[in-house]
Amino acid sequence: MLRLIAIVVVCSAQVAFGALQLRPYNETAFGMFLANDFNSDGVITRLELESSFDKYDADGNGVETRREYTEFICATSPSLYQLSHYLFDEYDMNGDHHLRKEDYDALFDTMDIDKDGNVTADEFIHYWELVFPKYENVGQHGHTFTHGNSACH
């Protein structure tokens, strides 16, 4: 079920004492990689990445809103709800507050370090090892959240 990037993002992440535990980053990222490598061939293709994001598009119009994305996360992994707002911003590569194919292409291009058209596990893990530290303390007491409620509604 957790075949998302980001998605549900953190297959192996745990919530402890109200804070999301992303460490060890490489293991969390590897779990995400496996969930998004739909055909289990050891690489994530552009199509596989786009397919991950299609799950969030509740109305099927090709554009995912923050609401669609966070409601999906709330329904599938409530403990990741607060993190989902930050991840939405991470995926919104052009900053227009919507997720579209251009965003997924830009995300893919960022992860595809050698530009061979495939994202290997090493490339995927490298990307997330740079991203996860920014969100390590999401949910801890005193950590503020600016995009909405801190819990599913």
Written description of the protein model:
- The protein has one domain (14-135): EF-hand (Recoverin, domain 1), CATH 1.10.238.10.
- The chain has helices at residues 25-36, 46-54, 66-76, 81-91, 101-111, 121-131; strands at residues 14-16, 19-21, 43-44, 64-65, 98-99, 119-120.
- The chain has 153 residues and is mainly alpha-helical.
- Mean pLDDT is 84; it is low at 1-12 and 141-146.
- Helix content is 42%, strand content 9%.
- α1 crosses α6 and α3 packs antiparallel against α4.
- It is globular.
- It is built from six helices and six strands.
- Strands 1-2 form a two-stranded antiparallel ribbon. Strands 3-6 form a two-stranded antiparallel sheet. Strands 4-5 form a two-stranded antiparallel ribbon.
- The longest helix has 12 residues, at 25-36.
- A hairpin with a 2-residue loop joins β1 (14-16) and β2.
- The second-level CATH architecture is Orthogonal Bundle
Q: State the helix count.
A: 6
Shape call = globular
* Rg from alpha-carbon coordinates: 14 Å
Sequence of strands across the biggest β-sheet? 1-2
N-to-C SSE string, H for helix and E for strand: EEHEHEHHEHEH
The CATH topology name reads Recoverin, domain 1
Helical amount: 40-55%
CATH superfamily: EF-hand
Distance between the termini: 22 Å
On the 0 to 100 scale, the average pLDDT is 84
Instruction: Give the CATH class.
Output: Mainly Alpha
Q: Total number of β-strand segments? A: 6
Low-confidence stretches: 1-12, 141-146
Described by strand count, sense and barrel closure, the largest sheet is: 2 strands, antiparallel
Strand percentage, roughly? 5-15%
Tally of domains: 1
Structural class: mainly alpha
